[in-house]
Design a protein that fits this description.
single chain, Alkaline Phosphatase, subunit A, 9 helices, alpha/beta
Length: 295
């Protein structure tokens, strides 16, 4: 699992483990990585990142184009008209993002990064009417209100996608970039306490829960399977697995612990070691000269 947002974005889009120390986005942002956006671009997709935060945060303005994104919409492109917690509210962010998606060329791959479910978990009283038992701490109560707010905004966003005719052909993927409440208020050694959600949705797909262990590194090949992309187009250079057809579910945590399968643990732990060597050895350095055109 990722230790921070940039690790999660790297894991999700490349299916390669990040560095053992430091962030790929800071240390090796100019490498040109094999990625899901690159595959989709070859199939005619327009790739766009949207985030209501600072343009330069996590060095994303250098890293995103080398992951295959050709557009990056940040706070400098948005109206910062409603602040909740650490930045632009998810309600405003989703509404403004929808405007960009409606105008965007189709098909497109859009990667939206929300803010309101992040610490400090402060939701205005008029945005939540949840009440809790006295046994719930103040911090945990704020976290629940924050997640409840985000859940509602996602629902409104999906309804608006349907209204504008964008939902039927879309695969909605929702995941957490790192653990929430426990990361800040209750340090824990129990890996079951740091799980993050993974939800995939299309109105034409019957709902089903898959009881399998996986990590953010596995989302790329799982999405590719749903999109009908042949595994031959990416299997040589990913480190993740398709969660729909694996019988050996597991996740490697940042501290080297393995959750899930007790089989081949030594082999599983080789993945992060190999990825670290590849990245630090500049295996992914750009093979061609010239600057990427990036807006």
């Amino acid at each position: 699992m990722a230790s921070g947002s940039s690790d999660a974005e790297f894991l999700f889009n490349t299916s390669i483990y990040p560095l053992k120390k430091g962030s790929v986005f800071f240390r090796y942002p100019n490498n040109e990585y094999h990625s899901l956006p690159a595959i989709l671009e070859n199939k005619g997709y327009d790739n766009i990142v949207l985030h209501g935060d600072e343009y330069v945060f996590w060095n994303r303005h250098f890293a995103f184009p080398n992951l295959g994104f050709n557009k990056y919409i940040s706070e400098i492109d948005m109206d910062i008209d409603d602040i909740i917690g650490m930045g632009l509210s998810d309600a405003s962010f989703f509404n403004q993002s929808l405007d960009y998606l409606i105008e965007n060329n189709q098909p497109f791959y859009s990667y939206l990064i929300t803010l309101t479910s992040h610490v400090p978990f402060i939701i205005p009283d008029n945005e939540s009417d949840l009440e809790f038992a006295e046994s719930i701490s103040e911090e945990l109560g704020r976290y629940y209100k924050s997640i409840n707010y985000v859940d509602r905004q996602i629902g409104y966003f999906i309804n608006k996608l349907e209204k504008h005719g964008l939902l039927g052909d879309s695969l909605i993927v929702i995941f957490g970039d790192h653990d929430g409440y426990h990361r800040y208020y209750e340090k824990t050694d129990d890996p079951m306490d740091i799980r993050v959600p993974l939800i995939m949705y299309n109105p034409e797909i019957d709902g089903k829960t898959f009881d399998v262990y996986g990590g953010q590194i596995d989302i790329f090949p799982t999405i590719a399977d749903l999109l009908g992309i042949p595994s031959e187009e990416y299997s040589e250079w990913i480190m993740g697995k398709n969660l729909f057809n694996t019988e050996n579910g597991f996740a490697v945590l940042r501290n080297g612990e393995i959750v899930g399968s007790n089989e081949n643990q030594e082999h599983h732990l080789q993945g992060p070691e190999i990825a670290d060597l590849l990245i630090r050895g500049n295996y992914f350095r750009k093979k061609s000269s010239g600057e990427l055109e990036f807006k």
